[in-house]
Design goal:
Blueprint (H helix, E strand, L loop, with lengths): L2 H27 L9 E7 L8 E8 L3 H31 L8 H17 L4 H62 L5 H17 L3 E4 L5 E4 L5 E4 L1 E2 L2 E2 L20 E3 L2 E3 L12 H32 L15 E3 L12 H4 E3 L13 H4 L13 H11 L16 H39 L4 H34 L1
Antiparallel strand pairs: 1-2, 3-4, 4-5, 5-6, 7-8, 8-9, 10-11
Helix pairs in contact: 1-11, 2-4, 2-5, 2-6, 2-10, 3-4, 3-9, 3-10, 4-5, 4-6, 6-10
């Protein structure tokens, strides 16, 4: 080997060592950067035609594509269940636990107790007033539950619109980064930084929509959902949605009063197991708006209907004119079966006995249609009212079962259903969170290892020193030759 060849080889070694040190430095500097994949330098021996030595082929970004794909699907499952668990937790809080004074079951118990107390001493005005107050509180509790459902559906509709806008933005960013990566690879420039950015964008996207990726060659990626919807393959898909300012109880996607999700102008099923986007936060929000909250509204409406109809029976209070409402009304009037949707939000204590609206509590004893107080010791109507709420019957609507129960029994069944749903989704959420955490932990283990990088740095230092020593030796030999 000639001196010039040895010098050339040593110079290529110094260049490679310098480049390798830069890669290690970058790895260590980004050890805590989310979405950063560790780099490694790729070297090859130069052929005889180039005088030998080593050449830098490039810098490789090390990613386990299979693990990354599974972790993203876990992100989607976590987002989906997190959205639903949040709704059910808030709804369960609104309904209340049995031991809470403001819960639905506690309000029913207080109303029943006040009726029994008033029936024992019908001449005491305070006890009649207590019945009126507790009845109004029961109606207001049902109003509050219905209002919570409508508020949650409205919030979900708003969040869907925000999510759709964000998904469109992220898909546009993926398209831009795809172009940067392809151009960089075509011109032999580094593309790892662009790939890191793209991974972060797709990671955020996977919270909204489950995604799988396919390599389209030279660095470009196509994204699609497990359900088969293409999100980007060259050009990004465009999601569209029209939000509603307020979502009322009667408004649904099925009757056309709420917007569907469209992808490239095609209407898709946006919730349920058959949805092509099923599994992400976006699908979870549709699940809340169109299924979970609608089912909850149906149940609370059936409960309110049962309460109204118990006291609307014509034979219960003969002082009422035909068609007049009973103790509980549908927005001041009688209940009609055709108007059941949203009745929980309209139920109210009859204004004839509601002391806050100028009513008279003595009508609870003497009849809603009475024009003057009757015998103060007559407890027959109060006893009948107490019997009406305690008698057993089957729900005329809803899906809480056909078993005949007292009103408190039906309410307990409703509360139990809410609690069971919350527990089930919470368990699913815990599993999804554990699975995601496990995959993320494995992913982090495959990330930048500071110990390994420091070991590499020591080897690079040794290689650098060896090549520098070779250059010094070649220089000494040349100087010796020049002195001869």
């Amino acid at each position: 080997m000639s001196i010039s060849t040895a010098l050339s080889n040593a110079l290529t070694g110094l260049t490679a060592s310098s480049r390798a040190a830069g890669v290690v430095s970058t790895n260590l500097a980004n050890i805590l950067t989310d979405g950063y994949a560790p780099r490694s330098i790729e070297l090859t021996a130069q052929g005889d035609g180039r005088g030998g030595g080593v050449a830098v082929v490039g810098v490789t970004r090390n990613v386990d594509a299979g693990l990354l794909s599974e972790r993203r699907l876990a992100d989607s499952a976590l987002g989906y269940n997190d959205a639903m668990a949040g709704f059910l937790t808030r709804f369960e809080t609104e309904v209340g636990l049995p031991d809470e004074p403001s819960s639905l079951t506690a309000r029913i118990a207080a109303f029943e107790a006040s009726l029994a107390s008033a029936a024992s001493k019908p001449e005491e005005e305070a006890r009649l007033t207590e019945v009126a107050l507790r009845g109004a509180e029961l109606a207001e509790k049902l109003n509050a539950i219905s209002s919570r459902i409508e508020a949650e559906r409205t919030a979900a509709d708003t969040q869907i619109n925000q999510a759709v806008d964000r998904v469109n933005t992220l898909l546009s960013q993926v398209q831009t980064l795809n172009a940067h990566i392809v151009n960089a690879k075509n011109f032999g420039h580094p593309s790892a930084s662009f790939e890191d950015q793209r991974q972060q964008v797709i990671d955020e996207l996977s919270d909204y929509v489950p995604v799988r990726s396919a390599d389209r060659g030279n660095g470009g990626l196509a994204l699609y959902t497990p359900g088969g919807t293409v999100l980007i393959d060259g050009r990004p898909a465009e999601l569209s949605f029209s939000p509603s300012n307020v979502v009322a109880a009667h408004m649904t996607e099925a009757n056309g009063l709420l917007s569907w999700l469209e992808i490239n102008g095609v209407q898709i099923t946006s919730s349920g197991a058959n949805s092509p986007i099923n599994g992400g936060r976006l699908a979870g929000l549709f699940e809340i708006r169109d299924r979970l909250a609608v089912a909850a509204q149906t149940q609370v409406d059936a409960t309110a209907r049962n309460l109204i109809e118990r006291f609307q029976d014509a034979g219960l209070d003969t002082t009422r004119a035909p068609g007049d409402p009973g103790l509980f009304t549908d927005n001041g009037g009688s209940f009609a079966v055709a108007d059941e949707i949203g009745v929980a939000g309209r139920i109210a204590l009859n204004s004839a006995v509601d002391i806050r609206q100028g009513g008279a509590a003595w009508r609870l004893r003497d009849g809603l249609g009475a024009t003057a107080p009757g015998a103060p010791g007559n407890a027959s109507l109060l006893i009948d009212l107490s019997a009406a709420i305690g008698s057993t019957n089957a729900m005329a609507s809803g899906d809480l079962g056909a078993t005949a129960r007292s009103f408190s029994g039906h309410a307990t069944s409703f509360v139990s259903r809410v609690g069971q749903q919350a527990i089930t989704v919470d368990q699913t959420l815990s599993f999804a969170a554990s699975r995601r955490a496990g995959l993320k932990d494995i992913e982090l283990q495959q990330g930048v290892d500071s110990d390994e990088q420091m070991q590499r740095l020591l080897l690079i230092e040794q290689a650098y020193s060896a090549n520098a020593r070779m250059i010094q030796t070649a220089d000494d030999m040349i100087q010796t030759l020049l002195r001869i």
